[in-house]
Amino acid sequence: MNVFINPGHALGGNPDPGCVNQAENLRECDIALTVGSIMGKFLEEAGCTVSLLQSHNLGGESPAFPNVTDTANHSLADAFISIHVNAGGGRGAETFCYWRYGAGGRLAACIQNQLVMAMQPLDKGYLDRGVKERPSLCVLRETMMPAVLVELGFIDSEDVRLLKEHQEDMAKAVARGVTDFWRTI
Fold first, then answer.
1. Strand 93-97 relative to strand 26-27: parallel, antiparallel, unpaired?
2. Cβ contact 65:71 at 8 Å
3. Of 136, 119, 141, which is closest to residue 128 (Cα–Cα)?
4. What is the pLDDT of residues 8-42, one digit of tens each?
5. Residues with Cβ < 8 Å from 135, sequence gap 6 or more?
């Protein structure tokens, strides 16, 4: 299986770090890159080929930076996973796909299930926010393979402890979700 990982927002945080928790000195771009990189190592250990690209140029809007969707499509990946962190005071994980009843929806369900199963024993308040369709998201709309955008938790809520202390557990869970999906094909 060939997996393309897109840690959300700009590499190094400039010009777009994503959401930020100033009090905890945490930025979404850094969490996404760490989780995506660790996840890639777990997938490689499972026999997958992995490509990783962090860029805020999702579909050609910032031509000076690598184009995420074009690069993913040219990689001939079997699955595309974009890693993000939420903000807005909620709790838990949610996984977005283009269409819930297609391959992307099945990939999203596998990842969401593994992430919730891994995190809820560590924090009972970590919610299963579910799989949601979001066809307007560029990384879901413009990719040719099953694609998901995973929101690991909320950087501005009690989830911050998990985001700080359990990045490897999150990476393992997302990787298990990807391999679960691969077994269903």
1. unpaired
2. no
3. 119
4. 999 999 999 999 999 999 999 999 999 999 999 99
5. 98, 99, 141
